[in-house]
Amino acid sequence: MPTPRNDPEVTLQEKDRGELPHQALIQLSLEHRQIIDLVYYHGKTIKECAQILGIPAATVQTRVFYARKKLADS
């Protein structure tokens, strides 16, 4: 009896699940991808993102808002 770990259907579902975020991210603009990467994958604060990118904190907040909106619409 195959275990769920060896089940080809489960393996394919896991691969597809991992591909979805990647496909959504590549549809974002470079600015929005940078923000999502810094905030969600590197755990940076709005202030830290602003310092890293050399932009105002308000711009970072705006980019986060629109990036999340675009991802939600995907």
Work out the number of β strands: 0
Biggest sheet overview: none
Radius of gyration: 17 Å
Mean pLDDT over all positions:
83
**Helix-strand topology string:** HHHH
Question: Treating each run of at least 4 consecutive H or I residues as one helix, how many helices?
Answer: 4
Structure class? mainly alpha
**First-to-last CA distance:** 38 Å
Contiguous low-pLDDT stretches (5 residues minimum) are none
Tell me what portion of residues adopts beta-strand conformation: under 5%
Provide a quick synopsis of the model.
This protein is an all-alpha fold and 74 residues long. Helices cover 76% and strands 0% of the residues. Helix 2 (30-41) packs across helix 4 and helix 3 (46-53) packs across helix 4.
Tell me about this structure:
With 74 residues, the protein is mostly helical. 76% of the residues lie in helices and 0% in strands. It has helices at 8-26, 30-41, 46-53, 57-73. The longest helix is centred in the N-terminal third of the chain and has 19 residues, at 8-26. The mean pLDDT is 83.
Give the arrangement of secondary structure elements.
Blueprint lengths: L7 H19 L3 H12 L4 H8 L3 H17 L1
Helix pairs in contact: 2-4, 3-4
Structure keywords:
single chain; 74 residues; mainly alpha; 76% helix; elongated
